[in-house]
Amino acid sequence: MTPRQIELVKSSWQKVLPISDTAAELFYGKLFAMEPAVKPLFKGDMKEQGRKLMAMITTAVAALDRLDQIVPAVQDLGRRHVKYGVKDAHYDTVAGALIWTLGQGLGEAFTEDVKQSWVAAYAVLATTMKEAAATVAA
After folding, report:
1. Which of 1, 26, 44, 51 has the highest count of CB atoms within 10 angstroms of its CB?
2. How much is the pTM?
3. Is 101:42 a contact under the CB 8 Å cutoff?
4. Residue 138: pLDDT above 70?
């Protein structure tokens, strides 16, 4: 990721934070609409799940310019997701739901540059998670 992409992700995320509960609801609604088969993977309180999602994204966004500090945690998350039944293909669905959610939350501020920056950030994190998950599945 370029420094400009990192800045665009960080600044756009600051605009999402005030509506994080709504963003989480939008995200999971879109995710389950896109891939109904993943809904059973989520057990428990979805509001709490949404808060965890927003906290995880906040942590990842804050560390985009020093990824080495969060790689172990991202890898651990990828390994844990194997136990939940997450498959590689699910990462693409999550990407689609996330990008759609950001577009809804940011409106006109979700420019093509912002979108591509988020796609790049997600790709880095998802690749790290999938590579770690492969070590569990192997």
Report:
1. 26
2. 0.91
3. no
4. no
